[in-house]
Amino acid sequence: MIDIDASKMLKEANLRPTKQRVSLVANIYKYGNRHVSAESLHKEILDTGDNVSLATVYNTVHAFKKKGYLKEISVNSEKSYFDTNTSKHHHFLDVTTNELIDLKKDDVDKIKINKNLPGKKIKSVEVLVKIENSN
To answer: Considering Cα of 89, then 101, then 73, then 29, what sign does the dihedral take?
Structure first.
């Protein structure tokens, strides 16, 4: 379990530290680095007995993303995960289980992009490798 100051983080993200939000933030980080969807977080909170609306979960994770406390990984047009590890890194996506798995920098050779877009510069390169069961 990671020791965090949920109230401080909420204030820094311009959110009022209500009991529900503090519980939500503590839940996000209680297992260390992980990947969660807004829906899975909502279910986790409800399973603890706390009552937090799905809208509050969405507002909080997006405010945390904007502040840099979470990174959003969009795996398709309908599904996003929020990653507590905000460093630049790559991922496997197991399309069978919908599990997102971190890849370390050393797991991927240097990637070279040969195309430039006028007026744009590359901010980062992060690879999402989709995998499935081989049988």
So the answer is: negative
Residue showing tokens 């829906």: 39
At residue 63, the 3 state secondary structure works out as helix
SS3 109: coil
Q: How far is CA 130 from each of CA 40, 52, 82, 84, 117, rounded to the nearest angstrom?
A: 21, 32, 17, 20, 26
Distance in angstroms (rounded) separating the CA atoms of residues 15 and 57: 12
Nearest CA among 74, 88, 77, 93 for reference residue 126: 88
Task: Read off the pLDDT of residues 98-129 as tens digits, 9 standing for 90 and up.
Answer: 899 999 888 888 888 988 899 999 988 888 99
Paired tokens of 25: 């933030």
pTM of the entire predicted model: 0.87
Q: What is the DSSP letter of 17?
A: -
| CA–CA distance, 76 with 116 (Å, rounded to integer) | 24
Which residues, at least 6 apart from 37, have a Cβ–Cβ distance to it below 8 Å? 79, 80, 81, 82
